[in-house]
Amino acid sequence: MGLFEPAAGTKKRRAGPVPLAERMRPQRLDELVGQDHLVGPGKPLRVQIESDELTSLILWGPPGSGKTTLARIIAGMTESEFLPFSAVLSGIKEIKQVMATAERARGYGRRTIVFIDEIHRFNKAQQDAFLPHVEQGNIVLIGATTENPSFEVIAPLLSRAKVYVLKSLTTEQLLELLRRALQDKEQGLGTLKVEAEEGLLREIAVYANGDARVAYNTVEAAALGSKPEGGRRRLERAVVESVMQRRLLLYDKAGEEHYNLISALHKSVRNSDPDAALYWLGRMLEAGEDPLYIARRLMRMASEDIGLADPRALTVAVDAMQAVHFVGMPEGNLALAQAAVYLALAPKSNALYAGYGKVREDVSRTVAEPVPLHLRNPVTDLMRELDYGKSYEYAHEYEHKTTAMPCLPESLRNRRYYLPTEEGYEQTLKERLEQLLRWKKKQT
User: Fold this and answer.
1) How far apart are CA 241 and CA 419, in angstroms?
2) What DSSP state is assigned to residue 58?
3) H helix count then E strand count, the chain
4) From the CA atom positions of the chain, what is the Rg in Å?
């Protein structure tokens, strides 16, 4: 066996024991589902590939989004040797051997694409070993990573490669791939004559959470685990659940159930019900909802329903988001659960929410008055001549660090937006605000 694998499209794919995900791997850009923002007609990366003006690049995206597939398609379309390289299994010695071979190949007029899967796992010394060969043009480097290249790829290598961001596949895109696989008699499961309800396929697509490999593996295992009857196989929910070793939950992240469940979570938190909050959170997470979406909604709840009654609520929600981003899933589930329970038990106030609502109403229905002159910064002589900053009162020079100086436009001079409640820490803020108002009244 030679050192280099044949590029995509140069040899017929094997059948038999090869996993469905590998058999169904697209061979041309037109077969690729998703990533239209990168390889759609007229997009820069597609133009670069079709004009055969390839440079080193980094493909950054979630698992199963097509990084390896895209690299193989690029190699096939540019008629390049394709050398997959594992950051987990290879060291400096292997890198040097491969680079020497690529340099010789270049001498024979052959271009080599070195594809490094999980490039973020290479340490600095290993990444440094590629630099001279990228600079000399001995190889075209294509790195794939699920981590932010800004933090995981050394600056010299990053500066010599263009970063392209891939997106998770949508539920509809995964559905399209599953339908193809069930119908394809050459590379897919078409010869098995598999029948599957559209709703069940959709649940598999939701479960895959944007990862095409997971979707393929699930439907293949379920199909092979179904007994043929009358020359056909029918996918049953029980078999699919057995393959996934979990119960399937009806949930469409783009449909009504998505909004129903997040509404239930939000209203449970608002109603200070930690048990219900935990339940609805679990329903969403176990059904495959994006944990960062939930984290964003928890942050909204912290501001909308708790606000300054417990200023730490927002911090807890943000900490949960950071924990999910850092440790990933399923470990991040507990961080979200911790935040949901904290928010449910926190004192509640919608004073900030109501106050900002009043601001939005006033902004939309009143004239946008100029900023009062005394609040403007006189940064030039002309501005001073025009009375910018005139009569401004510097609060730190006054006894209680406040003055009676008006800070709202004339038409809204006595408007009150923030009306704190007596819940939690907001009671302290209410007392402070009333004290400030009394001090200001004495100064008038």
Assistant:
1) 52
2) E
3) 21, 7
4) 30
How many whole angstroms separate alpha carbon 101 and alpha carbon 336? 50
- Which domains are assigned to the chain? 20-165 (3.40.50.300), 171-244 (1.10.8.60), 256-345 (1.20.272.10), 371-443 (1.10.3710)
d(Cα 173, Cα 165) in Å, to the nearest integer?
18
Q: What is the pLDDT of residues 349-386, one digit of tens each?
A: 999 999 988 888 888 887 788 888 888 888 888 888 88
Written as one letter, the residue type at 397 is E
| Tokens standing for residue 100 | 């020497």
Q: What is the pLDDT of residues 313-347, one digit of tens each?
A: 999 999 999 999 888 778 889 999 999 999 999 99
Q: In what order do the strands lie in the sheet with 81-86?
A: 81-86, 112-117, 140-145, 57-60, 162-165
User: What are 256's two structure tokens?
Assistant: 């009504």
Q: What are the CA-CA distances from residue 365 to residues 143, 358, 368, 406, 411 (Å)?
A: 53, 11, 9, 21, 12
Tokens of 135: 């600079």
Q: Is the N-terminal amide bond of 330 cis, ω within 30° of 0? A: yes
Residue 47's identity, in one-letter code, is V
Tokens of 98: 């491969």
Is the whole-model pTM more than 0.90?
no
DSSP state of 55: -
> Residue 430 corresponds to which amino acid?
K
Cα torsion 175, 178, 179, 180 to 10°: value is 120
Strands (E), 246-387: none
Residue type, 233: R
One-letter amino acid identity for 319?
Answer: D
Return d(Cα 318, Cα 311) in angstroms, integer.
Answer: 12
Tell me how far CA of residue 74 lies from CA of 87, 142, 264, in angstroms.
20, 10, 46
Runs of H (alpha helix) within 209-248: 212-224, 237-244
Instruction: Report the C-alpha gap between 401 and 423 in whole angstroms.
Output: 26
